[in-house]
Amino acid sequence: MAAGIYIGSTEGYSGKNMIVMGMGLRLQKEGFNVGYMKPVGAMPQEINGKMGDEDAFFVQDVLGLKEDPALVSPVVVTQDFKVRAFSGQEPDRMANIKAAYDTLQAQRDVMLVAGSGSMYSGRYSRLDGVRVVRDLGLKCIVIDRLRKELNYDYLVVLRDTLGDAMAGCILNDIPPNYMNEVETLLKPFLENNGVKVVGVIPKDPLMGAIKVGELAERLGGKIISAHNKADKVVENFLIGTMQVENFMTHFRKNKNSAVIVGGDRSDVQLVALEGACPCLVLTGNLYPNDIILTRSEVLSIPIIVVRDDTFTVAKKMETILSRHKLRAVIKIKQGAQLVSANLDFEYIKGQLGLK
């Protein structure tokens, strides 16, 4: 029987795929036969006539696995599924999950089971992470990604709920200025409350970044200058709707931010270009004047023109950057290295009884 570990998180988009792939690649390198499952797939996708989960297809691909999508994600959350679950007409699908898990783990040394959303997501259909961990008899590691602060209370409550099944937590996306507090205050607090900190992963701008070319595509816009720099990386964004003086103050603090600005605001556009922003995003389908275009070419800073208004583009950018999936090969490598370098693999293997 394979040892099984569930990778969950305190909220969605916390880095589960990165951790699962990083752990899987590292354990494979050490000679273990690794299996993978995502019991509840929240992103339905059909490939070659088979329905599965978009992330699950991707992770299988990275780990070189070729299991049947119906086993890897026995429950896929479609609109129909939700309607049935909310109205109490969807049968309990835990038996399907158990059967699929038993089939997949038969030939493996270790099973990595990925959560969907937070540990309590899926409670409406009685398929939340806490229940999956209990019913499959798994150990569990919970990722907490720093957004404004860490969810330390949530982690302690989970430990109270899961007991020894909770093997620990991973603190993800920790910027340098927060490391000291994590090491001196939060880590000791968590460990005194029975939550082992299995790893602290530093913030790496590359992991949330997106290339200008891909950004243009996602925003439904087009690059109109400095095309040869479409592989520049954008880590953040600034909105240039304010007065130039105010904009300059913000801009100095936020290097490497794309600047979203109306196509008619040449004053802000020029400041952003001269300040070497990675790219300009001009809204309202308005093209810049010749001076801006020339400076853009001279400074090799691409300009993207989009149809939407500034507010709509800003909302889209926020979604793109917070949910930007780990698709590029460079990111997979970087993510795998981050995981390998910052997780206590000896402890994890000890929890799983792997020699």
TrEMBL record:
Domain of life according to the entry: Bacteria
Transmembrane segments: none
SUPFAM superfamilies (alphabetical): HprK N-terminal domain-like, P-loop containing nucleoside triphosphate hydrolases
Location of the DRTGG domain: 214-318
InterPro entries, alphabetized: DRTGG, P-loop_NTPase, Phos_Acetyltrans/Butyryltrans, Ser_kin/Pase_Hpr-like_N_sf
Pfam family, one: DRTGG
Subunit structure: Homohexamer.
Protein name: Putative DRTGG domai protein
Organism listed in the record: Megalodesulfovibrio gigas (strain ATCC 19364 / DSM 1382 / NCIMB 9332 / VKM B-1759)
